[in-house]
């Protein structure tokens, strides 16, 4: 159980600061299975989860949807046969907020 999974997302206002480079370096080290991608200039966290079939991939997707609703912070999700690609970033600031790292850690917990 990492410190991130103990935290709750905070309401992310449009003027909320993006994580600094130093915060990014510290936080990404707490979610070692996640990578950083930049798409259309927006920094995002991304991980691909592998499953035995589509039914298991979909079950994971539905659990993730419940988590997102509970935290009111929502991922990008690509669900395919045997894999789910999850992407976290904060729409309101067009970049990464601590919320995204919290949600990535909580996404990993869905596998437990
Ligand atoms: C309209 C806006 O996207 C929503 O109000 C909330 C809910 N979910 C959200 N999810 C994410 N990832 N970022 C947001 O800024 C966000 N804002």
Largest sheet: 4 strands, antiparallel
N-C termini distance: 10 Å
Helix content: 25-40%
Number of helices: 3
The CATH architecture is: 2-Layer Sandwich
Strand-residue fraction?
A: 15-25%
Rg, rounded, reads: 14 Å
From the 3D structure, determine the CATH topology.
Gyrase A, domain 2
Number of strands: 4
List the uncertain runs: none
pLDDT averaged residue by residue? 95
What structural class should be given to the helix and strand makeup?
alpha+beta
* Bound ligands, each once: ligand H2B
- How many domains? 1
What would the principal axes of the Cα set say about the shape?
Answer: globular
CATH class equals Alpha Beta
In CATH, the homologous superfamily goes by the name Transcriptional coactivator/pterin dehydratase
The order of strands across the largest sheet is 1-2-4-3
InterPro entries: PCD_sf, Pterin-4-alpha-carb_dehyd, Pterin_deHydtase
Enzyme class: lyase
Organism: Shewanella ulleungensis
Protein name: Putative pterin-4-alpha-carbinolamine dehydratase
């Amino acid at each position: 159980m990492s410190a991130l999974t103990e935290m709750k997302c905070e309401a992310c206002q449009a003027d909320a600061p993006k994580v600094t480079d130093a915060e990014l370096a510290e936080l990404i080290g707490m979610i070692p299975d996640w990578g950083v991608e930049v798409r259309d200039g927006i920094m995002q966290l991304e991980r691909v989860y592998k499953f035995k079939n589509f039914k298991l991939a979909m079950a994971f997707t539905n659990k993730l949807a419940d988590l997102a609703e509970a935290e009111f912070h929502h991922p990008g999700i690509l669900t395919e046969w045997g894999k789910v690609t999850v992407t976290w970033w904060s729409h309101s600031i067009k970049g990464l907020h601590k919320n995204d790292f919290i949600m990535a850690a909580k996404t990993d917990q869905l596998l437990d």
